[in-house]
Amino acid sequence: MLADHTSLLAGGLAHSADMTRFGAVAALLPRFCHAGFECPLGDDEPGLDFLHCLRRTEESRYLVDAPRAHVVWRRLRHFATLWRTDGTALDRIPNCWLEFDLRGQRTTDAPAPSLFVHVPATSPAEYDAAVEQVGAALQMARSPATRAAMIRLYETFGPYSSGCETGFWLARRTPAIRMVFMKIQAPPDGVMELLERAGHPDPAIVRRTPVPGLWPSSGCTAIGVDVTERVAPGCSVELYPLPPDRAFTDDVYVEVQRRLLEDVVAAGLCTAGKYARVMRWPAIVSQGHDADRRAEIWLRRAVHVKLTVKPEQPVSAKGYLSLSGLAVTRERPVHAST
Length: 338
Fold this sequence. Notes:
This protein is an alpha+beta fold. The protein has a domain at 53-267 and 308-316. It is built from ten helices and eleven strands. It has a ten-stranded antiparallel β-barrel, surrounded by four helices. Strand 10 (294-309) and strand 11 (316-329) form a beta hairpin. Helix 5 packs across helix 6. It starts with a helix and ends in a 9-residue tail after the last strand.
């Protein structure tokens, strides 16, 4: 199923080597409900990262059975086994994402992902307990200073967020943990205030040109920071084209996606070529014949743009393309009797 859609990425967005790696991931994790592709927008060079969503009660079983001997996969199998067990703090995690940094891997490398767990809005103590168990399962225990810095961030941003995507960089050589606070509806000044309260060393970094000018194009944002024993100087700002938790027609969705990307092009963060290729991705695709009662509908969307802001470096932008599957049951026609 993945191959039916990823073929559209070949050439302009994905290298041929990326297509090989997609196949390797699909062999390990044959089913998914949501997937995503992250592509740099600032140049016309192909290259993607791949994200695969696993639900605790569904696709997580494929993670338990993953046959790879690589140390990253051994840690993930251990996490998944505990995650599927009822009665622990991991119950608070309904889904997680595996992030494959394909652009940084050689074709011959076994795909090894990092792990992002989604913790819906809860108390700081419950969030900390869930993340502590994840770290223990992955053999990536946090230091007391890191734990304190993360709790402070959660206490500050948690009340304004729908949840926190928390990333353990299994595939990177860094001790940092990524915290991404989702669905924040606040202007740049409001986010600066929250960053300052949370101990960020340079909250005004979100004012770096052209970030504030793009903010009105977005329905909501997600704010990401890296944490070691303190909050790292940079941050990421994810711009979503529509407000959260509201239904929109597909025509409206495509139009606001187009406007957001046009603003990113105008800001010099996206090439015309990448804009055209990204806008060819959105579609609604039905799998199954008309006579079939059960079928699948696949939604392809350009979901958001992520701006990464680092000290003394140019702002960079990535586009996020999503692929989501919905199972549907068609009604059989009823013929009136005469």
